[in-house]
Amino acid sequence: MALFSDYNFKPELIDGLLSMGYKQPTPIQEQAMPIILNKQDVIACAQTGTGKTAAFLLPIINNILNSDNRHLNTLIIAPTRELVLQIDQQIDGLAYFCGVSSIAVYGGNDGVTWTNQKNALENGAEIVCATPGRLIALLQSGGIDFSQLQHLVLDEADRMLDMGFFDDIKNIIKYLPTERQTILFSATMPPKMRQLANQITKQAQSINIAISKPAAGIKQLAYNVFNEQKDKLLDEILSNDDYQSVIIFSSTKDKVKDLERSFLRNKFNAKAFHSDIEQVEREAIMREFKSKRLRILIGTDILSRGIDVDGISLVVNYDVPPDPEDYIHRIGRTARAEKTGVAITFVNPKDQYRFLTIENLMGIEVEKPKLAEEYGATPLYNAEEIKKPSAKSKGNFKRKKFFKKK
Q: Which of 167, 252, 354, 363 has the greatest number of CB atoms lying within 10 Å of its CB?
Protein backbone atom coordinates (compact mmCIF):
# COMPACT_ATOMS: atom_id res chain seq x y z
CA MET A 1 0.00 0.00 0.00
CA ALA A 2 1.41 3.38 -1.06
CA LEU A 3 2.26 6.14 1.40
CA PHE A 4 2.63 9.88 0.78
CA SER A 5 6.26 9.54 1.80
CA ASP A 6 6.81 7.39 -1.33
CA TYR A 7 6.42 10.45 -3.59
CA ASN A 8 9.49 12.39 -2.47
CA PHE A 9 7.42 15.42 -1.51
CA LYS A 10 9.12 18.33 0.21
CA PRO A 11 9.14 18.02 4.05
CA GLU A 12 7.05 21.17 4.46
CA LEU A 13 4.38 19.74 2.14
CA ILE A 14 4.33 16.50 4.15
CA ASP A 15 3.78 18.66 7.26
CA GLY A 16 0.74 20.21 5.60
CA LEU A 17 -0.59 16.76 4.71
CA LEU A 18 -0.24 15.55 8.27
CA SER A 19 -1.86 18.67 9.70
CA MET A 20 -4.93 18.07 7.50
CA GLY A 21 -5.22 14.43 8.56
CA TYR A 22 -4.09 12.84 5.28
CA LYS A 23 -2.61 9.39 5.88
CA GLN A 24 -2.61 7.33 2.69
CA PRO A 25 -3.29 8.31 -0.91
CA THR A 26 -6.63 7.40 -2.49
CA PRO A 27 -6.71 5.44 -5.80
CA ILE A 28 -7.00 8.60 -7.91
CA GLN A 29 -4.08 10.14 -6.02
CA GLU A 30 -1.96 7.01 -6.47
CA GLN A 31 -2.54 7.06 -10.23
CA ALA A 32 -2.47 10.80 -10.94
CA MET A 33 0.33 12.11 -8.72
CA PRO A 34 3.26 10.29 -10.39
CA ILE A 35 2.09 11.45 -13.84
CA ILE A 36 1.68 15.07 -12.72
CA LEU A 37 5.01 15.02 -10.89
CA ASN A 38 6.52 13.83 -14.19
CA LYS A 39 4.93 16.91 -15.85
CA GLN A 40 2.82 14.91 -18.31
CA ASP A 41 -0.69 15.92 -19.36
CA VAL A 42 -3.56 14.06 -17.68
CA ILE A 43 -7.19 13.37 -18.62
CA ALA A 44 -8.86 11.85 -15.56
CA CYS A 45 -12.41 10.63 -15.00
CA ALA A 46 -13.09 10.78 -11.27
CA GLN A 47 -16.11 11.94 -9.33
CA THR A 48 -16.06 14.19 -6.27
CA GLY A 49 -15.25 12.50 -3.00
CA THR A 50 -12.39 10.46 -4.46
CA GLY A 51 -9.64 12.86 -3.36
CA LYS A 52 -9.08 14.33 -6.82
CA THR A 53 -8.39 17.89 -5.60
CA ALA A 54 -5.35 16.78 -3.58
CA ALA A 55 -4.39 14.52 -6.51
CA PHE A 56 -3.48 17.58 -8.59
CA LEU A 57 -2.67 20.08 -5.83
CA LEU A 58 0.03 18.04 -4.09
CA PRO A 59 2.31 17.50 -7.12
CA ILE A 60 1.71 21.06 -8.35
CA ILE A 61 2.67 22.59 -4.99
CA ASN A 62 5.70 20.31 -4.86
CA ASN A 63 6.74 21.40 -8.37
CA ILE A 64 6.40 25.06 -7.33
CA LEU A 65 8.61 24.43 -4.29
CA ASN A 66 11.25 22.87 -6.56
CA SER A 67 11.19 25.88 -8.91
CA ASP A 68 13.95 28.49 -8.75
CA ASN A 69 11.80 31.22 -10.31
CA ARG A 70 8.56 31.82 -8.39
CA HIS A 71 5.83 33.44 -10.49
CA LEU A 72 2.22 32.98 -11.62
CA ASN A 73 2.65 29.26 -12.03
CA THR A 74 -0.74 27.53 -12.06
CA LEU A 75 -4.27 28.32 -13.26
CA ILE A 76 -7.13 26.18 -11.93
CA ILE A 77 -10.53 26.72 -13.56
CA ALA A 78 -13.68 25.42 -11.84
CA PRO A 79 -17.39 25.93 -12.65
CA THR A 80 -18.75 27.55 -9.45
CA ARG A 81 -17.73 30.07 -6.83
CA GLU A 82 -18.24 27.48 -4.12
CA LEU A 83 -15.86 25.00 -5.73
CA VAL A 84 -13.29 27.72 -6.41
CA LEU A 85 -13.36 28.75 -2.74
CA GLN A 86 -13.07 25.15 -1.55
CA ILE A 87 -10.07 24.47 -3.78
CA ASP A 88 -8.45 27.69 -2.55
CA GLN A 89 -9.08 26.64 1.07
CA GLN A 90 -7.49 23.27 0.37
CA ILE A 91 -4.46 25.03 -1.12
CA ASP A 92 -4.20 27.08 2.09
CA GLY A 93 -4.22 23.90 4.18
CA LEU A 94 -1.82 21.82 2.11
CA ALA A 95 0.59 24.72 1.54
CA TYR A 96 0.34 26.10 5.08
CA PHE A 97 4.02 25.41 5.80
CA CYS A 98 5.19 26.05 2.23
CA GLY A 99 4.69 29.76 1.65
CA VAL A 100 2.91 29.18 -1.68
CA SER A 101 0.51 32.03 -2.51
CA SER A 102 -2.94 31.61 -4.07
CA ILE A 103 -5.99 33.69 -4.98
CA ALA A 104 -9.65 32.74 -5.55
CA VAL A 105 -11.12 34.65 -8.50
CA TYR A 106 -14.91 34.66 -8.89
CA GLY A 107 -17.78 37.03 -9.62
CA GLY A 108 -20.76 38.24 -7.63
CA ASN A 109 -18.82 40.68 -5.43
CA ASP A 110 -17.97 44.38 -5.15
CA GLY A 111 -15.47 46.64 -6.92
CA VAL A 112 -12.91 46.31 -4.13
CA THR A 113 -12.80 42.54 -4.61
CA TRP A 114 -12.42 43.02 -8.38
CA THR A 115 -9.42 45.30 -7.76
CA ASN A 116 -7.87 42.86 -5.28
CA GLN A 117 -8.28 39.96 -7.70
CA LYS A 118 -6.77 41.94 -10.58
CA ASN A 119 -3.81 43.07 -8.43
CA ALA A 120 -3.14 39.50 -7.32
CA LEU A 121 -3.12 38.31 -10.93
CA GLU A 122 -0.88 41.15 -12.07
CA ASN A 123 1.55 40.81 -9.15
CA GLY A 124 1.94 37.08 -9.49
CA ALA A 125 0.00 34.92 -7.03
CA GLU A 126 1.50 31.49 -7.69
CA ILE A 127 -1.80 29.60 -7.94
CA VAL A 128 -4.97 31.18 -9.34
CA CYS A 129 -8.26 29.35 -8.90
CA ALA A 130 -11.01 30.98 -10.98
CA THR A 131 -14.46 30.70 -12.46
CA PRO A 132 -14.44 31.14 -16.27
CA GLY A 133 -16.69 34.21 -16.45
CA ARG A 134 -14.78 36.38 -13.99
CA LEU A 135 -11.41 35.29 -15.38
CA ILE A 136 -12.44 36.23 -18.94
CA ALA A 137 -13.52 39.67 -17.72
CA LEU A 138 -10.20 40.24 -15.92
CA LEU A 139 -8.17 39.05 -18.90
CA GLN A 140 -10.04 41.39 -21.22
CA SER A 141 -9.20 44.32 -18.93
CA GLY A 142 -5.52 43.75 -19.74
CA GLY A 143 -2.29 43.70 -17.74
CA ILE A 144 -2.29 40.01 -16.77
CA ASP A 145 0.76 37.99 -17.82
CA PHE A 146 0.36 34.23 -18.15
CA SER A 147 3.53 33.82 -20.24
CA GLN A 148 5.33 31.80 -17.55
CA LEU A 149 2.37 29.60 -16.62
CA GLN A 150 3.37 25.96 -16.18
CA HIS A 151 0.16 24.21 -15.13
CA LEU A 152 -3.46 24.49 -16.32
CA VAL A 153 -6.09 22.50 -14.41
CA LEU A 154 -9.73 22.16 -15.49
CA ASP A 155 -11.74 20.75 -12.58
CA GLU A 156 -15.31 19.49 -13.03
CA ALA A 157 -14.79 20.08 -16.75
CA ASP A 158 -18.02 18.35 -17.79
CA ARG A 159 -20.03 20.61 -15.48
CA MET A 160 -18.40 23.68 -17.03
CA LEU A 161 -19.52 22.49 -20.46
CA ASP A 162 -23.03 21.83 -19.13
CA MET A 163 -23.10 25.42 -17.85
CA GLY A 164 -22.16 26.82 -21.28
CA PHE A 165 -18.50 27.67 -20.64
CA PHE A 166 -17.08 25.81 -23.67
CA ASP A 167 -16.27 28.98 -25.63
CA ASP A 168 -15.02 30.80 -22.51
CA ILE A 169 -12.53 28.03 -21.79
CA LYS A 170 -11.26 28.10 -25.37
CA ASN A 171 -10.86 31.88 -25.15
CA ILE A 172 -8.97 31.66 -21.86
CA ILE A 173 -6.56 29.14 -23.35
CA LYS A 174 -5.63 31.67 -26.05
CA TYR A 175 -4.00 33.76 -23.29
CA LEU A 176 -1.87 30.82 -22.07
CA PRO A 177 1.47 29.51 -23.34
CA THR A 178 1.26 26.43 -25.54
CA GLU A 179 4.11 24.81 -23.62
CA ARG A 180 2.44 23.91 -20.33
CA GLN A 181 1.15 20.92 -18.44
CA THR A 182 -2.62 20.48 -18.80
CA ILE A 183 -4.60 18.47 -16.24
CA LEU A 184 -8.29 17.81 -16.87
CA PHE A 185 -10.60 16.23 -14.30
CA SER A 186 -14.14 15.31 -15.28
CA ALA A 187 -16.78 13.06 -13.75
CA THR A 188 -18.01 12.05 -17.20
CA MET A 189 -16.50 12.11 -20.67
CA PRO A 190 -19.22 12.93 -23.24
CA PRO A 191 -18.14 13.53 -26.87
CA LYS A 192 -17.87 17.31 -26.53
CA MET A 193 -15.76 16.88 -23.40
CA ARG A 194 -13.47 14.45 -25.21
CA GLN A 195 -13.20 16.91 -28.11
CA LEU A 196 -12.07 19.69 -25.78
CA ALA A 197 -9.64 17.39 -23.97
CA ASN A 198 -8.00 16.35 -27.23
CA GLN A 199 -7.68 19.98 -28.36
CA ILE A 200 -5.94 21.30 -25.25
CA THR A 201 -3.73 18.36 -24.15
CA LYS A 202 -0.64 16.76 -25.66
CA GLN A 203 -0.03 13.01 -25.40
CA ALA A 204 -2.16 12.96 -22.26
CA GLN A 205 -2.25 9.98 -19.93
CA SER A 206 -5.79 8.74 -19.23
CA ILE A 207 -7.09 7.72 -15.80
CA ASN A 208 -10.53 6.32 -15.05
CA ILE A 209 -11.63 5.87 -11.43
CA ALA A 210 -14.94 4.25 -10.47
CA ILE A 211 -17.18 6.33 -12.67
CA SER A 212 -20.89 6.34 -11.87
CA LYS A 213 -20.56 4.27 -8.72
CA PRO A 214 -21.61 5.76 -5.39
CA ALA A 215 -19.46 5.25 -2.32
CA ALA A 216 -19.92 1.87 -0.64
CA GLY A 217 -20.79 3.57 2.66
CA ILE A 218 -24.00 5.14 1.33
CA LYS A 219 -27.25 3.40 2.32
CA GLN A 220 -29.65 4.20 -0.53
CA LEU A 221 -33.43 4.20 -0.13
CA ALA A 222 -36.19 5.21 -2.56
CA TYR A 223 -39.82 5.88 -1.67
CA ASN A 224 -42.53 5.61 -4.33
CA VAL A 225 -44.79 8.54 -3.52
CA PHE A 226 -47.32 10.91 -4.99
CA ASN A 227 -46.26 14.56 -4.91
CA GLU A 228 -48.75 15.40 -2.18
CA GLN A 229 -47.14 12.79 0.11
CA LYS A 230 -43.61 14.18 -0.12
CA ASP A 231 -43.80 16.95 2.49
CA LYS A 232 -45.29 14.73 5.20
CA LEU A 233 -42.68 12.06 4.57
CA LEU A 234 -39.87 14.62 4.58
CA ASP A 235 -41.04 16.01 7.94
CA GLU A 236 -41.10 12.50 9.37
CA ILE A 237 -37.56 11.77 8.12
CA LEU A 238 -36.18 15.04 9.47
CA SER A 239 -37.74 14.35 12.88
CA ASN A 240 -35.09 11.64 13.29
CA ASP A 241 -32.43 13.25 15.47
CA ASP A 242 -29.79 10.83 14.14
CA TYR A 243 -29.56 13.03 11.02
CA GLN A 244 -27.54 15.96 12.35
CA SER A 245 -26.30 17.31 9.01
CA VAL A 246 -28.68 17.17 6.03
CA ILE A 247 -28.70 18.32 2.41
CA ILE A 248 -31.98 18.36 0.47
CA PHE A 249 -31.84 18.63 -3.32
CA SER A 250 -34.60 19.84 -5.60
CA SER A 251 -34.29 20.34 -9.34
CA THR A 252 -35.84 23.84 -9.31
CA LYS A 253 -34.92 27.04 -7.49
CA ASP A 254 -38.59 27.82 -6.81
CA LYS A 255 -39.07 24.52 -5.00
CA VAL A 256 -35.93 25.18 -2.93
CA LYS A 257 -37.49 28.46 -1.78
CA ASP A 258 -40.83 26.76 -1.04
CA LEU A 259 -39.11 24.11 1.09
CA GLU A 260 -37.24 26.75 3.08
CA ARG A 261 -40.52 28.53 3.90
CA SER A 262 -42.12 25.23 4.92
CA PHE A 263 -39.18 24.31 7.17
CA LEU A 264 -39.24 27.69 8.88
CA ARG A 265 -42.95 27.22 9.66
CA ASN A 266 -42.15 23.79 11.12
CA LYS A 267 -39.26 25.16 13.21
CA PHE A 268 -36.54 23.20 11.39
CA ASN A 269 -33.06 24.76 11.37
CA ALA A 270 -32.81 25.10 7.59
CA LYS A 271 -31.69 27.57 4.92
CA ALA A 272 -31.94 27.68 1.14
CA PHE A 273 -28.86 28.03 -1.05
CA HIS A 274 -29.40 29.33 -4.58
CA SER A 275 -28.21 31.87 -7.14
CA ASP A 276 -30.63 34.62 -6.04
CA ILE A 277 -28.74 34.96 -2.74
CA GLU A 278 -25.84 37.43 -2.64
CA GLN A 279 -22.38 35.87 -2.56
CA VAL A 280 -21.59 37.19 0.94
CA GLU A 281 -24.73 35.53 2.31
CA ARG A 282 -23.98 32.29 0.46
CA GLU A 283 -20.54 32.14 2.04
CA ALA A 284 -22.05 32.82 5.48
CA ILE A 285 -24.59 30.02 5.01
CA MET A 286 -21.84 27.62 3.97
CA ARG A 287 -19.78 28.51 7.04
CA GLU A 288 -22.80 27.84 9.25
CA PHE A 289 -23.36 24.48 7.60
CA LYS A 290 -19.72 23.41 7.80
CA SER A 291 -19.54 24.35 11.47
CA LYS A 292 -22.76 22.36 12.17
CA ARG A 293 -24.61 25.48 13.39
CA LEU A 294 -27.00 24.96 10.46
CA ARG A 295 -28.58 21.51 10.33
CA ILE A 296 -30.34 21.51 6.93
CA LEU A 297 -29.15 22.97 3.63
CA ILE A 298 -31.58 23.06 0.68
CA GLY A 299 -30.29 23.56 -2.85
CA THR A 300 -30.31 22.69 -6.53
CA ASP A 301 -27.66 20.69 -8.39
CA ILE A 302 -25.19 23.57 -8.11
CA LEU A 303 -24.53 22.09 -4.65
CA SER A 304 -23.98 18.54 -5.88
CA ARG A 305 -20.51 19.30 -7.25
CA GLY A 306 -19.73 22.53 -5.47
CA ILE A 307 -19.77 21.49 -1.82
CA ASP A 308 -17.13 19.59 0.09
CA VAL A 309 -18.27 19.08 3.68
CA ASP A 310 -17.41 16.13 5.89
CA GLY A 311 -19.92 14.54 8.22
CA ILE A 312 -23.12 14.94 6.17
CA SER A 313 -25.37 12.19 7.52
CA LEU A 314 -28.32 12.43 5.13
CA VAL A 315 -28.99 13.47 1.55
CA VAL A 316 -32.60 13.73 0.36
CA ASN A 317 -33.56 13.97 -3.30
CA TYR A 318 -36.94 15.70 -3.07
CA ASP A 319 -37.31 14.80 -6.72
CA VAL A 320 -35.31 12.58 -9.07
CA PRO A 321 -32.59 14.57 -10.87
CA PRO A 322 -32.97 14.86 -14.65
CA ASP A 323 -29.51 13.37 -15.31
CA PRO A 324 -28.46 10.02 -13.78
CA GLU A 325 -24.93 11.34 -13.26
CA ASP A 326 -26.35 14.17 -11.14
CA TYR A 327 -27.84 11.54 -8.83
CA ILE A 328 -24.35 10.13 -8.25
CA HIS A 329 -23.03 13.58 -7.43
CA ARG A 330 -25.94 14.45 -5.16
CA ILE A 331 -25.70 11.37 -2.98
CA GLY A 332 -21.90 11.61 -3.04
CA ARG A 333 -22.17 14.50 -0.56
CA THR A 334 -22.58 11.89 2.19
CA ALA A 335 -20.33 8.96 3.19
CA ARG A 336 -17.21 10.90 2.23
CA ALA A 337 -13.73 9.90 3.35
CA GLU A 338 -14.81 6.28 3.95
CA LYS A 339 -17.60 7.28 6.35
CA THR A 340 -21.24 6.15 6.16
CA GLY A 341 -24.41 8.03 5.34
CA VAL A 342 -27.97 7.73 4.05
CA ALA A 343 -29.40 8.89 0.71
CA ILE A 344 -33.19 8.97 0.27
CA THR A 345 -35.00 9.69 -2.99
CA PHE A 346 -38.69 10.48 -3.50
CA VAL A 347 -39.91 8.90 -6.76
CA ASN A 348 -43.27 10.01 -8.12
CA PRO A 349 -44.96 8.15 -11.03
CA LYS A 350 -43.57 10.56 -13.63
CA ASP A 351 -40.01 10.03 -12.40
CA GLN A 352 -40.06 6.22 -12.19
CA TYR A 353 -38.34 5.67 -15.53
CA ARG A 354 -35.70 8.25 -14.65
CA PHE A 355 -34.97 6.38 -11.46
CA LEU A 356 -34.77 3.09 -13.30
CA THR A 357 -32.09 4.57 -15.58
CA ILE A 358 -30.17 5.55 -12.45
CA GLU A 359 -30.40 2.01 -11.09
CA ASN A 360 -29.22 0.66 -14.45
CA LEU A 361 -26.29 3.08 -14.42
CA MET A 362 -25.23 1.92 -10.95
CA GLY A 363 -25.94 -1.75 -11.67
CA ILE A 364 -28.03 -2.16 -8.51
CA GLU A 365 -31.65 -2.06 -7.41
CA VAL A 366 -32.20 0.48 -4.65
CA GLU A 367 -34.21 -0.64 -1.62
CA LYS A 368 -37.78 0.74 -1.72
CA PRO A 369 -39.45 0.68 1.70
CA LYS A 370 -43.23 0.84 1.88
CA LEU A 371 -44.90 3.81 3.51
CA ALA A 372 -47.04 3.35 6.60
CA GLU A 373 -50.78 2.85 6.04
CA GLU A 374 -51.50 6.35 7.32
CA TYR A 375 -50.08 7.75 4.07
CA GLY A 376 -52.76 6.02 2.05
CA ALA A 377 -52.27 4.51 -1.41
CA THR A 378 -48.83 4.87 -3.05
CA PRO A 379 -47.73 4.47 -6.68
CA LEU A 380 -46.94 0.99 -7.97
CA TYR A 381 -43.36 0.40 -9.10
CA ASN A 382 -42.90 -2.48 -11.51
CA ALA A 383 -39.48 -2.46 -13.15
CA GLU A 384 -40.55 -4.75 -15.98
CA GLU A 385 -43.44 -2.51 -16.88
CA ILE A 386 -41.22 0.58 -16.71
CA LYS A 387 -38.66 -1.02 -19.04
CA LYS A 388 -41.33 -1.37 -21.71
CA PRO A 389 -43.40 1.81 -21.43
CA SER A 390 -46.56 2.08 -23.48
CA ALA A 391 -47.00 4.82 -26.05
CA LYS A 392 -49.20 6.64 -23.55
CA SER A 393 -46.48 6.38 -20.91
CA LYS A 394 -43.90 7.75 -23.32
CA GLY A 395 -46.10 10.76 -23.87
CA ASN A 396 -46.18 11.35 -20.14
CA PHE A 397 -42.40 11.30 -19.79
CA LYS A 398 -41.70 13.80 -22.61
CA ARG A 399 -37.96 13.10 -22.33
CA LYS A 400 -36.84 10.65 -24.98
CA LYS A 401 -33.25 10.66 -23.75
CA PHE A 402 -34.30 8.69 -20.67
CA PHE A 403 -35.36 5.69 -22.71
CA LYS A 404 -32.70 3.05 -22.95
CA LYS A 405 -31.51 2.42 -26.50
CA LYS A 406 -31.53 -1.20 -27.57
A: 354
